[in-house]
Amino acid sequence: MDVVTCDLCDAHPDAVRVLDLPLRDFGGRAAFAGIVSTVHALEDNSRVREAVAEAGAGRVLVIDGGGSTRRSMLGDLLAEQAVANGWAGVVVHGVIRDSLAIGQLDLGVKALGTVPLKTDKRGQGVRDVPVCFGGVTIRPGDWLAADADGVLVADRPLV
To answer: In which family does this protein belong, per the annotation (predicted)?
Structure first.
C-alpha cells in the first residue's frame, strides 16, 4: 500500500488527527496503514505478547507505554511474531529493543527510541481501550497511517 501522510492530510484535512510526537522509524517497512488495535500498559509487555500472537489481518498495534524509556515494549521476537501473524505495523508510545533485527523485518515500527532492558511480565495492562498521547485519542477500530513524515489517525480508512 502506498501511504503518503502528507497527501492524506491535504485531501482530508478535517478527517485526520496527527500525532504530535517525535517518533522514530525502526521497522523494515517505511510506510504502513491499517485498522487499530490498542494496548495500554506501563513497562509490562504481557498484553503486547497476547496481541501479536493473534491474527493481525493487516492491523496496526498501538502501544501506549506511557512514554516510558526505562523498559522496552517490543523486541525482535515479538516483532517476528507480528510479521508471521500478519500485522502491518506497531506504533509505540515508549521504546523498543533489538532495533537492528527489527529493521530487517517487513513490519512498520515507530517508537520514541530504544533501550536494551526488557519488561517484567506481570500480566498487567489492558487491550482495546482508547489511548491518548501525542495530542490525539486513538480508539480501537480507528484507521492509522504512518510514513517517514509522521502518523495520522482517522475514524475511517482514507485510502
So the answer is: Belongs to the class II aldolase/RraA-like family.
Which tens digit of pLDDT belongs to each residue from 3-34?
899 999 999 999 999 999 999 999 999 999 99
The answer to pTM > 0.70 is yes
Name the grid cell of 23: 517518533
Question: Which residues, in sequence order, are CB contacts of 79 under 8 Å at separation 6+?
Answer: 27, 52, 90, 96, 98, 101, 102, 105, 107, 109
Could you tell me if 87 and 60 are in contact, meaning their C-beta atoms sit under 8 angstroms apart? yes
